[in-house]
Amino acid sequence: MSLDLSLNKILIIDFGSQFTQLIARRIRELGFFSEITSHKKIKNKDINNKIKGIILSGGPLNVYEINKYSFDKKIIQKGIPVLGICFGHQIISKLNGGRVKQSKHREFGLANIYKKNDSLLIKNFFYKKKSMKVWMSHADQVSKLPKNFKVIASSKNSKFAIVENKTKKYYGVQFHPEVTHTDNGKRIISNFVSLICKMKRNWSYKDQKKKLILQVKNQVGSNKVICALSGGVDSSVVAQLLNKAIGNNLHCIFVNTGLLRKDEEKQVVTTFKKRLKINLTYVNAEKEFLKKLSNISDPEKKRKIIGNLFIKIFERYAKKIKNVKFLAQGTLYPDLIESRSVTGSQTSKIKSHHNVGGLPKKMKLKLVEPLKFLFKDEVRKLGLELNLSREIISRHPFPGPGLAIRMPGIITKEKIKILKEADHYFIQALRDHNLYNKIWQAYVALLPVKTVGVMGDNRTYEYLCLLRAITSEDGMTADFYEFKKSFIQDISNKIVNSIRGINRVVYDITSKPPSTIELE
Known about the structure:
This protein is α/β, with parallel strands linked by helices.
């Protein structure tokens, strides 16, 4: 199988924005091929005739910090259309003789922009209105436009919210059209790619599948790979992808940490060993994990202990299989973003994912992470292309550390048993009410708080459990699901009446941001 990877493309130059992969995602959704490269790596000689357009991403730096970023301005002087987003917009202005300064009034969040002139970039963007809501995230702004640039739209605090130099094919937007918060933002990207760069559609999920299979083959060669299989969507898709790419050289290892959902180990073994006929080794390491986690309450320590122990177990079992040099994981792009900078730029670490920031520094196995630049819904579409059942790919996300990060504080067998039952009742209720597929992710957490209750005229002193159910497109942002009051009452009664150890139920109505989806 071969795939021409020298396709016409949009080149995205990354300056460290947490939204860079969202730009690539929007371009993929539109049916075009794009490639991301770091501003630290791109050279003038790398620009060839396959590149039909260049997008400069946002980033945490400012244009005054020349010593913190490197960029050859010749890259954007070849007559190829260039779109600058936020920081990228400021770079275009600065490199062409404009001025950028610190804003008197910073703009973070939603802002109205007002149309001033026509441009191909905003065709059908404003609908038939004169203003649109966009997502701003900047403390600096262009204060003086370069010569021969025209203002297309302005906001109250950003006079140059959209600008262009049609002759030199420069376009700049101070806001982020790639995020869902910007109304009709995808139209800006579509207009740039289709109308300005004149690209023809050349990408699909079938192409994505072929590309990833080819990448795995090239990386792995004839070596054997063990796959960390959890039974969740991500690891299931990775397992099937590797199964297509390397066949019998794939050996899946399913580790029962004791922190799985109710009966999950039985479901995984049945699905992958019996139904899909994939090489699978089942490891019951419940005692080992719980011993290591004994009396540990710090969430970062939990993640690192789990990540380290996973690797030790995989390496232990890899010795039993000759010629194993790789470990495959279902790491996704949001995991990378929250754990570390993907391109080495200055981005913030939010938490260590057990399969990213939780890995030990020294590993005997090399990592294979074919999904690391995809979002959850893209992984689900890829799973369909790989002929996985909808039952598997429609499962809600489940974190690698499992229930360990859904019970803040110390982990005990008693708390695990209580939490498994409560989570089972909640998920089953969602299925019974046809709500499961309307929700991105739902779970129960057991909080390290006991409260007084009364049952049958007797005092109780039991745990408080929290219900979490969110809607999202890609996991980068999320909002809580608005249940009917009757549903919340029913599930609360069911949990309290059925499970000894819980006497109070609360519902989390916090969005992401400011919170994360999981508690730890």
